[in-house]
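All the exercises in this workshop are built on plain-text protein records. There is nothing in a record beyond a sequence line and a structure line. A learned vocabulary of local backbone shapes supplies the integers on the structure line. The question running through the whole workshop is how a given chain folds. Here is such a record, shown just as it appears in the course material:

***
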Amino acid sequence: MIRRSLPYMIVVLVILALWMGLWWHQQRLGDRAVASGWILLGLSASLLLLSIRKRIYRVGWGRVAWWVRWHKYAGILAAAVFLMHIGWPIRGWFESLLAVVFVLVTVTGIALGVLSRTSPQRLLALSEDYRLECIPGLQRAVADAAHAA
């Protein structure tokens, strides 16, 4: 239990440290949006590294499982930094559009993370193993049966 929750506790501690650092930055230097924007840009760039790692598999950059874990924790951190960065209320149509896109990407990432954890169990529960090439024919047969009914 502790082994599974330790990375999340570390992420929460990093979020708190960033929040305190951004608060200090705002008190001493002024606008914290510049610092949080650079942090968010760096985290977003690091989130792209998983895609690059999956495409270049011959180079020994470590196991993909480690990269997926990093992607998950960096995504949580990026979502928290985003909430610290945007300022409330959101003003302007461009800022609103960027916020909506970021939220959509975040929600999509969470949904795909949940699906990647639940889909293998659901696929194992099937009585038959279907080949990928057969799926369009099966879909057509189901559609024809539904249309006939």
Observations:
- The radius of gyration is 21 Å.
